[in-house]
Amino acid sequence: MKDKLLILAYMGTGKTQLEKHYKNVVDLDFQDYKYIYDKSIRHLPLEQRKGQTSLRTENPDYPNNFITTIFAELEKGKIVVSPFIEHVFKAIDSDDFKAKAKDVTKILVFPTADNFGEYVDRFKSRGNMVLI
């Protein structure tokens, strides 16, 4: 049996870069599962949709739709990376997920205090951070 790997990583730790460089890695952002976006912005890239809070509604299927997709990608042999954010962690920590994920290795990735400036630079370069 192939190992199944789920990596929950803090924002800015390189999830998207992993996906760009390795064909067997999929970067699953919860946004497209947690929210239903207004048709006027569905065509925009995710980074541009994220701030459009008035043009999205909560998806009643979340987190089940997200968990189903995680398992589908793992079954395809993909390494799944996803943001480490409270509601994603709670979904992964649920009894339902744990019961289905006995053969899944989970890795948590965090930044450290000594490289805070590096993360600020990453957020600025991709337009995620506005300084006041």
Give the DSSP E fraction (strand runs of 2 or more residues): 15-25%
Give the overall pLDDT as a whole number.
Answer: 86
- For the secondary structure, the number of strands is 6
What's the CATH class, please? Alpha Beta
Main structural class:
alpha/beta
Strand line-up across the major sheet: 2-5-1-6
Structure, described:
The protein is an alpha/beta fold. The chain has a single domain (4-125), classed as Rossmann fold. The protein is built from 7 helices and 6 strands; from the N terminus they run E-H-E-H-E-H-E-H-E-H-H-E-H. It has helices spanning 15-21, 31-34, 46-49, 64-75, 86-92, 95-100, 116-125; strands at 4-9, 25-27, 35-37, 56-58, 79-83, 104-109. The strands form 2 sheets. It has a 4-stranded parallel β-sheet with strand order 2-5-1-6, with helices on both faces. A two-stranded antiparallel ribbon has the order 3-4. The radius of gyration is 16 Å and the shape is globular.
